[in-house]
Amino acid sequence: MADPQEILAQRVQSALGAAFGPEFADADPVIRPSQFADFQANAALALAKRLGRKPREVAAQIVEHLDADDLCREVEISGPGFLNLTLRDDWIAAQARALLDDARLGTPLQRRQNIPIDYSAPNVAKEMHVGHLRTTVVGDALARTLEFLGHNVIRQNHVGDWGTPFGMLIEHLLDVGDTSPEAELLKSDPNAFYQAAKAKFDGSEEFAERARKRVVSLQAGDEGTLEIWRELIELSKAYFNKVYSTLEVTLTDGDLAGESMYNDMLEGVCQELEDLGLAVMSEGALCVFLDGYTGREGKPVPLIIRKSDGGYGYATTDLATIRYRARELEADRVLYVVGAPQNLHFRMVWETARKAGWVPEGTEPIHVQIGNVLGSDGKILRTRSGKPIRLMELLDEAVQRASAVVEENRPDLDAGTRAHIAREVGIGAVKYADLSVSHDTEYVFDFDRMLALTGNTGPYLQYAQARLRSIFRKGGVAPEEAAAGAITIGEKAERDLALRLLGFGPTVALVGDNLEPHRLCGYLFDLAQELTTFYEHCPVLTADTEERRASRLALCAAALRILVQGLDLLGVRAPEQM
Ligand code: ARG
Q1: Which of 52, 135, 194, 410 is the most exposed place for a label (fewest CB within 10 A)?
Q2: How does pLDDT run across 53-74, given as a tens digit for each residue?
Q3: Which atom of ligand 1 is nearest to the CA of 345?
């Protein structure tokens, strides 16, 4: 089982060594997919400069030393000195066959790393908004993919469960009582709970005073206060978990690692930074100043780690967080799947932590920047009244709209089955829309587009795999049985499909390296399109020979496995029928 590009690279590299001497044996063979052949090797162009010779001559010498008869049908020199490489059909067929015998579908196991992934991270007693939806969906796809690649993924849900607002939230909960309908709001409409507390805080000096005192006893670890605080967190957890189970993300209570977890470490963080001379007092606050971070008029931007009132903030917590992830979790990479606007914050926190010696050379913090989700007006998605969109309502609407589509397309199915499919399609469509564009770009949230059965959408891919399943049903063949068939390649569409199948593993590996789930979406979309061309040219169940039928069914079995596995890595369901 092999990545053709990788194997060709090895072969061309050996040829370089053989042709020009050992000092060339690690030169980049520059293999790229090509329009004119399967791949092209562009090494001759750069080498010609180094050797002071004509590129075409260099190319000819590479060909002379290239040992690739077992996998290439044709090696041709073209243009200024490109090597056009065309694979042998029997080699592609054998590789596709090997793919079917590999439970990992050609995906390599990578050297195991410890990878904490900070994602989702909603705030207690606040509505999860579409921004949180996107970090949840992208983070979960990365967690699934990195785990599949063999890494030790440690999910870290850095919920906002600490800080000054908790004074008023606790007092409000005490006022209304923890079994009141107002308290129930925390489970269904947390923003309403927050707004009610805030209104009291702004409207009543007596309440505001209580709230401020409450923050002090919370910080001081007063047991009675902590008890109410824990109740508040419990109620909020119910809300988060409802969203997570609707989305079918892999986060559990065990992955909660919120801001409160670092509370005891904040004083030490400040002390150590002060002792190291990294933090200094400025206008009453304890600050870190870093080179190269300047605002307007060249004024240095401080990272404030202790406010003038003695309180610690978001940055202090994140300093403790990166130290914990580097030291206790022994992270190789630490992913922060968080909105792009927080980039400056993270860069300053990490640089400070590095300077303090908390983040060793081998630990790489990475901000997987999440772009905004926009409304059709090009602004951050909100309701018409200007309020942030409630996530559960959004998801319900997606399922409702998907029901309409399923009802229209499949009137033959019973209502229960249709409802089941609608859920998988509706939720899948929303998730896929978050994943299919590169994570750092903004995109416009548009139900019609994400639910369309054409284009790079969730439903299109779900349909592609459902269609494969229906071929097997119609033919009365189980996919597992078909997967045992011999593969032969005749038609171009068979060849293209088989070659595309070999790209799955390398694509998954790339997603793990570059942290870009949209590459997997793009790959699956190409595969689905290739399948359509394949059906047009290659009848499967009605193929003219038994051998062809078996081979085509085997290709279909491989395509089905890859689509299902690929969607699973993205966290999107693969309905049995559609
Ligand atoms: N709770 C934050 C928010 O809603 C996100 C936290 C991201 N993670 C972190 N380590 N700062 O914006």
Answers
A1: 52
A2: 999 999 999 999 999 999 999 9
A3: 11
- Contact of 81 with 44, CB cutoff 8 Å: yes
161 touches ligand 1 (CB under 6 Å): no
Q: Please tell me the distance from the alpha carbon of residue 110 to that of residue 64, in angstroms, as a whole number.
A: 34
- Structure token digits, residue 439: 């994570």
Mean pLDDT, rounded, for 188-199: 92
- CA–CA separation, 126 vs 135, rounded Å? 16
CA of 158 to the centre of ligand 1 (A): 6
- A 10 A CB-CB count for 274 gives 16
Ligand 1 pocket, residue 157 CB under 6 Å: no
- Residue 346 Cα: closest atom of ligand 1: 11
| DSSP character string of 196-220 | HHHHHHHH-HHHHHHHHHHHHHHHT
CA within 13 Å, CB half, 427:
22
Residue whose Cα lies nearest atom 5 of ligand 1: it is 121
CA of 336 to the centre of ligand 1 (A): 9
The whole-angstrom separation of Cα 305 and Cα 271 is 10
Give me the phi and psi of 256, to 5 degrees please: -70, 125
By the 8 A CB rule, do 226 and 233 touch?
Answer: no
Q: For 241-267, give the DSSP string.
A: HHHHHHHT----GGGB--GGGGGGGHH
CA dist 374 and 30 (Å) reads: 39
Q: Which burial class, exposed, middle or buried, applies to 244 when counting CB atoms under 10 A from its CB (0-12, 13-18, 19+)? A: buried
Q: What pLDDT score does 246 carry?
A: 97
Q: Which of 7, 3, 28, 33 is nearest to 17 (CA)?
A: 28
Regarding the beta carbon of 127 and ligand 1, being less than 6 Å apart is answered no
Measure Cα distances from 363 to 21, 320, 326 in Å: 37, 15, 6
**Structural domains in the chain, sorted by start:** 4-87 (3.30.1360.70), 165-250 (no CATH), 458-570 (1.10.730.10)
Higher pLDDT, 41 or 386: 41
Write out the two tokens for 331. Answer: 């992270």
CA–centroid distance, residue 121 to ligand 1 (Å): 5
Question: What 8-state DSSP symbol labels residue 129?
Answer: -
**Cα–Cα separations (whole angstroms), residue 21 to 25, 29, 450:** 7, 15, 54
